[in-house]
Design brief:
Two copies of one chain form a homodimer. Chain A contains eight helices and seven strands, in the order αβαβαβαββααβαβα. Chain A has a seven-stranded parallel sheet with strand order 3-2-4-1-5-6-7, with helices on both faces. In chain A, helix 1 packs parallel to helix 4. The radius of gyration of chain A is 17 Å and the shape is globular. Chains A and B meet through helix 1 and helix 5 of A and helix 1 and helix 5 of B.
Amino acid sequence: MKIKVVESILKANDAVAQDNRKVMDEAGVLAINVMSAPGSGKTSLLEKTIPALGPQHRSAVLVGDLQTTRDAERLDDIAAEVVQINTGKGCHLSATQVSDGLKSLKLENISFLWIENVGNMVCPAAFDLGEHLRVVLLSMPEGDDKIAKYPTLFQPANAILLSKIDLVGVLDYNMERVKNDLSRINTRAPLIEISTVTGEGMDMWLEWLRSQRTSHK
Amino acid sequence: MKIKVVESILKANDAVAQDNRKVMDEAGVLAINVMSAPGSGKTSLLEKTIPALGPQHRSAVLVGDLQTTRDAERLDDIAAEVVQINTGKGCHLSATQVSDGLKSLKLENISFLWIENVGNMVCPAAFDLGEHLRVVLLSMPEGDDKIAKYPTLFQPANAILLSKIDLVGVLDYNMERVKNDLSRINTRAPLIEISTVTGEGMDMWLEWLRSQRTSHK
């Protein structure tokens, strides 16, 4: 019974997601669903990425959070358009919430639509929002065991950013374990080591983004 | 409709939780639900805490994870009893899963039952498992904005452990903001700064645990 309810919620969600994708395709926007655990650096990544993409690539952002508008405030001066979606007790964004958010955004002359999901390694993975790409952050201090533990998040990712790499010297971290776990579930996504503090890895990340933008056109 | 379904799931869960609490009360066990984001150090905390409590306080552990038995393996030699519960795609433990787990545990001569929840800052908060106390870990690298963002997790906590405090020197962290956010939603729970690497704060944490154990008898 419970499973049936969940299936029907997902089915309804996926139909709205298809509509969202059509809206974004018509506007010529590349939509990226950014997912991670809480505090892995999603907002910090966008703070650094959006200006670095340059004026030829304008960004809009939909920010999901249970409460507060703190992340949206951080991005307000950086992105061309920002809309905060408060999910209350909801552990993920849904396609309907994104559809509502899209209605508040002017998508003309926008290259990238960033959808910053709720900080969570479980729920967001099950919900297609209509995005074209999924980017997952794995923060180094979260430990080297997360890929095997959360395969539903990492398996469909188009890129995986190993964030807070500036802490590499002070953490006991087995990088081989991470790469080995990843090789079993996802051989398509690049694993990019990144730090928004030192800027390490930003070039590779921006290059990947631009190539995705080019091949999407 | 969706809300009604959720309410009825929670109501059924709470009834089972009451039964769990009765089982643990009769066995003289103090049950602690340990919650946090993924990779905040729940398993590391138990690895250090259980031996430090001494032979007069034996521990059993129920470990929730989507997949893998890695955490249970880490605790297998340390705790008197360990049971792994795999939740599949479930983002939290339920009272029924804990009830099933309890059936596999011998609770005689056990002082503490640790319930290590799924790494998640949203879903676990809504589900009473029959625990007596809730302990929430907030890992320092997750940032200083999490208490305001996840009030449903931090509001009902009996103790909050600020973990990975050994990283304090390398992070840009506003401790006042954390304390200020916490003072608005929870003035009961002590905020204990802790590191399982350096051992900082372990004394205070163990003292708190022993006092809870004494007052529970």
